[in-house]
Backbone:
């Protein structure tokens, strides 16, 4: 019918207009790089709507940000806790998956154990080459979690609605893993969509993803 063709055409035009407007806005927004020299912290709390977070080992306490100027985060250390949040809590439209919209926060600190780590991110990845924490919780709505070397004491929880979870090395004494649409691999062996072992122990690695795979070694 003609009305169906008309609606389809209108839909295509709207998509093109939105895409063009998004590209124009991105092209006209300033991208900045900002550094923060910090005092020692033993706790980390991150609450952001978008952007990748990278934790890396170094010889100082430092945070760097790269992304749109309007999204420069608020970074502060108070009572030994590093808090990172966006001044303007606006979630980017990812209709066309423009990488220019993404921001990146890099946290550098010595190889010391954190007392706690809490990350809440609606749209972005979390990665760490080394993470030592007494207890932690990383919650992503859309993003991957990638940890190379994980040391915990009282357990850690990883949760992402859409993304993969990978831990290359861990000292966990128990596991509670679940995926709705994906596969679970433990030390190279596949275990279907759920895996539980010693889940009542003190140092449990919990991981849950709705759409993605979980790999733990």
Residues:
């Amino acid at each position: 019918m003609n009305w169906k063709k008309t609606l389809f055409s209108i839909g295509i035009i709207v998509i093109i207009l939105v895409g063009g407007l998004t590209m124009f806005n991105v092209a006209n927004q300033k991208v900045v790089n900002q550094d923060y020299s910090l005092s020692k912290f033993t706790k980390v709390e991150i609450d952001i709507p978008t952007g990748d977070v990278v934790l890396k080992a170094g010889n100082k306490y430092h945070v760097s940000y790269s992304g749109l100027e309007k999204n420069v985060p608020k970074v502060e250390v108070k009572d030994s806790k590093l808090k990172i949040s966006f001044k303007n809590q606006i979630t980017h439209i990812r209709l066309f998956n423009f990488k220019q919209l993404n921001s990146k926060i890099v946290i550098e600190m010595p190889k010391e154990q954190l007392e706690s780590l809490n990350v809440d991110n609606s749209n972005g990845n979390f990665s760490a080459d080394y993470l030592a924490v007494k207890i932690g919780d990383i919650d992503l709505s859309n993003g991957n979690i990638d940890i190379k070397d994980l040391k915990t004491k009282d357990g850690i929880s990883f949760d992402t609605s859409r993304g993969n979870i990978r831990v290359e090395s861990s000292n966990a004494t128990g596991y509670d893993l679940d995926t709705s649409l994906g596969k679970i691999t433990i030390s190279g062996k596949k275990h279907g969509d759920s895996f539980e072992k010693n889940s009542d122990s003190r140092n449990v690695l919990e991981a849950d993803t709705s759409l993605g795979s979980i790999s733990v070694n």
Notes: Residues 18-24, 91-100 have pLDDT under 50 and may be disordered. The CA atoms of residues 41 and 78 lie 8 Å apart. Helices lie at 2-27. The two ends are 57 Å apart (CA to CA).
